[in-house]
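Researcher: Last one for today. Full complex below.
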Amino acid sequence: MNIEEFNNAIKSKLYGAYEIKEDVDHYGNDNSWIILHEKKDMEVIAKAVKAFKGRCVVATGYFNEADNTHTVIYHFDIDGMIINVQIDTDDKTVISITPILRSADWAERELREMYDVEPIGHPTKDRLFLDYSIAKGVLNEYISLSKMQMGVSDTDVLWNQVNKGVKA
Amino acid sequence: MSEVIPKLFRINTGSCNGCDVEFMPTVLVEKFGVSTLGVEMVEDIKDANLIAITGPLTARSESFLKSAVSKIRHPYVVVGVGTCAITCGIFRDSYAINGPTDKIVDVNVNVAGCPPRPQSIAEGIAKGVKVLNQVMNGEATPKTIDAIFKDFSAPESFRGRMDLNPDMCTACRTCETVCPSTAIKITEIAAGHVHNIWHNSCCYCGNCAYFCPTGAIFSTNSFDTVKLQSEKYEDVNSEIIKSSTCSSCGDTYMPPSRGLLGKGYVHDDVKKLDTKICSKCRKEANFKRMYA
Amino acid sequence: MSEKVEIGPFHTELEESVYFKLEVDKNRIVENVEIINGFIHRGMESLVTKKNFMQNLILTERVCSLCSNNHPMTYAMAVEQIAGIKIPLRAEALRVIADEVKRIASDMFNLSMLTHIAHTHQLMKDTMNTREHMQDLKEVIWGNRMDMSSNLLTGTKYDLDERKIKIILDTLDVVEPKIRDLQERYENDEQLKSKTVGVGVLPLKDALEIGVTGPVARGSGINNDVRVKAPYGLYAYRPEIQPNVSLSLREEGDVHARAMARFGDILEAVRIIRDVVTDMPEGDTYVDKRPHIPAGEAVVRTEAPRGELIYYLKTDGSQKPVRMRWKVPTFTNWEALKVMILGDKVDNVTMILNSIDPCISCTDR
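Model: Here's the assembly. Have a good evening.
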């Protein structure tokens, strides 16, 4: 299995334009990137991964402050080969691939919790890790609101106590 | 004097599992001596009178900890196991952390370590038992309790309590920068700098010692980290790094430490160097010597 | 009539806090399962972006202290990819040694918890006591029984001399026969078998769909060991040290098979450590104590004791990561729990949970 073989399987099926960056790591393992420009193309990728008996390893997201968009990267594995597929979203949504690849379940739920990016069509609505006392999308903020309102960090509070003791 | 049967229950409030994993051999492996304390492990917190708490208290654990604690019958004793339980350690200031645990429950004994060795956890349990007996008999808890297990030792290589040699330190703040759990604070005072290491915030990783350019900060193999709650803010290693007065211009300046000079002047005799003038005056003097 | 049963979040048989809400029928068979996570969620992916690269060497170690060598190692590998730094061969060897020592200790902890929950007391004691040799070894060589602090960006903090190599070899000589003896007893012990064989079965089809990894995958007949499928570090440079996964593969997919798969992993780890320490490459142990880390992104994988660990790192040339994300084996293995628990007895729930060797602190982060 290599990235060329995967490209041959998807190139006629993708709706939008896309780029492939072929790459290998220090140790000679394939580590290629595909950049999509059309959201529903992630489903095409997922179907191809499934056809090759691959799995979704995890998904990553990050917020782009400059243009108020989110970048979402899905990492797939096909028999030891990693494929990283990237898509940008300006309306905080992606199309869920969990209905196609069960292994994407938790990864997509985390996108929702951590970045408030909604995987449309995901079968589960429950929170995964984040307590309901914490607003979703916490990773978009630098410091959580509650801590900001206090004005001082826990570290400051505790070290004040220490300094009292040391001076006395 | 009546002897109480200590009934132990462990609560994990979001630890990295280090303390919990070490808790198991502590109670199950004979050499750590917990069986000699007559401690009974109970399955229901309602039956417990000795509670071991690990972890920095995550947001989701908070309400469950409150409800668990409300079920315990008084009197009981709480042992905080691990740096996280005492000060939230490395996880402090995260949005998801609501600890430390003494915000929610009265803690009696603290066991610092990341994770503490089973010998320290056993010592913590032993001190917890002692406090429990005192409480049951209506006695006051003293300010400190001497070590109960006296035969434990640690290998030379054990990363224990950190120590500082002030003669070698130049207050360069490398240790403060690489410390992941804000256990080191260097503050400027009139006489120089105060270098504080707070053992209850330390995660005993040795990063400070590894990156220290002069070898001033180092780890000892002491695992004497089991202290009463009353000692929580006082278990600090505090040293003053003295500044000097420049013999030339009279300004206060931070002299290079013995450690730093040793590094900079490998082939010269360090003692011959005039270390009584500040770096500004030294530069000027050197400039004059070479170009004037 | 179904009855509601709750387990956790604080429970003596649960190493870490998790909360099960179960519905069981009159025969105590689980009909419905709801698992509530997040008790160990410490907001670590946010914390790592607030700490500098040196602090993160230690913070990643505290993701979970059972795989506490894999996290900083994989994080360091991601940094090295971005900085374009190849680390010295000796450092690669040192990383493998630390990693496999951790694997033995971690797997043996899981096995002793299994026998603890199964109430096979003597087996538990013997497993725990055998593991103590590895714990002592870690304390003597690295200074702590759980967190070795062995990794450095571009290499390792520690080195081995003749004396330390001898300590390692002597420990392995003591431990190996004990492990072989335990392996045979776990395989044949009637009491243990009666509680674990046919319990918590994960069929191959589900295992593939869910994408499980590590001993959970190997217990269901899948080999996706990263050390073999996408070899890294010394496993890439010296293919002969790669584990022989066939020694760990089992077809049954039950609690017993997963335990035996771990024995395969442990014995291969013993062999790997021996091979590496007796043929140590000469040279430095790191390239640069405090390397410059340019802007870039990297995806890196390793095989942790519980399976595949993947790190994504994005940097912008500053002292702190822009984004760091990792996926641990339990993250995917967790969904398999539902398959294992449904239709099994409620009394088996904590044992089945233990059989995936759950690392909840890794998963919740």
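The mean pLDDT of chain C is 89. The CA atoms of residues 60 and 166 of chain C lie 30 Å apart.
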